[in-house]
Amino acid sequence: MEVFPICISASGDSPVLFRPPKTDREYHDLKALYCVSTRLDTAGPWLDRLYKTLNPKRFAHSLSVARTSVRLAEKYGLDVIRAEQAGLLHDCAKCLRLEEMQKIAVRHNLTDDPAFLESPALLHSVVGAWVARKKYGMEDPEVLKAIEYHNTGCAGMSPLAMDICLSDFIEPNREPFPGLEEVRALAEVSLEKALLLSLEDVVAHVSSKGRALHPRTLGTIEWLKTLPAVNADPTPEPIKP
Ligand SMILES: [Fe+2]
Ligand SMILES: [Fe+2]
User: Fold this and answer.
1) Cα of 189 to ligand 2 centre, how many Å?
2) Can you tell me whether residue 232 is helix, strand or coil?
3) Left if phi > 0, otherwise alpha if psi is -120 to 50, otherwise beta: which for 174?
4) CATH number for the domain running over 8-231
5) Contact, 80 vs 73, CB < 8 A?
6) pTM
7) Distance of CA 229 to CAs 27, 104, 184, 190, 235, Å?
8) Of all residues in the chain, what percent carry a pLDDT higher than 90?
C-alpha cells in the first residue's frame, strides 16, 4: 500500500474558508493554509492530484470537508488520520463525466443498481472508493467504506463514515440553506443526532422538489433512529464559543 502521511495540523477550532483556487499560485497558497506542518511535502502528491482532477470549487470543498472531519474525529475520539484521508478523497471521482463513471462501475462490478448507474450524485461515491484505491493507493477498508457511503449513508455505518457524511453536509464552505445551522450546532454534541437531522433535511428538500430519495438513505435514517445515542435524552445544549 502506498502511504501518504497526511497533515494533522489540518484540524482547528475556528472555521477557515478555503477559497477555490483560480491559479496555480492560489493553489499553493491554499495548500499552505490547509496544511501548515512540516509534513506538507509528503502530503503533496495527494493534494496535487486532487487539484488536477477536481474543479476549483470541488477542491476547496474537499479540503474543507477534511478539516471538518478531523475536527469531529478529535471531538468524538475517532482516528484523525483516517478522517482526514476520507475527507480529502470522498469526492475524488466527483468531476468525472457520468459515462466515465458508468464505464468504471460496469467494468469493475461496483454496482448493478440502476438508480446509482444513472445518477452522478449517487455514482461518484461508489466510483470514488475505487478511484481512491487505484489512483491514490488507499487500501484501508474503513476509509474506502466512508467514501462509498458519504452521500447516502448506510445502515450499520461506522462512526468514521458518519463523520464524513456529516462533514460533507456542514463544512464551512457550504452555501447556507434552511436547517444547516441547527445541524452544525447539533454536530457539536452528537454525531448520530446531527447526521439524522441532516438526512431528514435532505429528505424534506428532495420531497419538496417532487423527487424520491434512494432507499439506502431512507434505510440509514431508520437505522439511526434505533441507536441509543439518538434516543438518549435530553441532548445537552451546544457549548457557545
Ligand atoms: Fe460527494
Ligand atoms: Fe462532498
Assistant:
1) 22
2) coil
3) beta
4) 1.10.3210.10
5) yes
6) 0.89
7) 40, 38, 17, 8, 9
8) 72
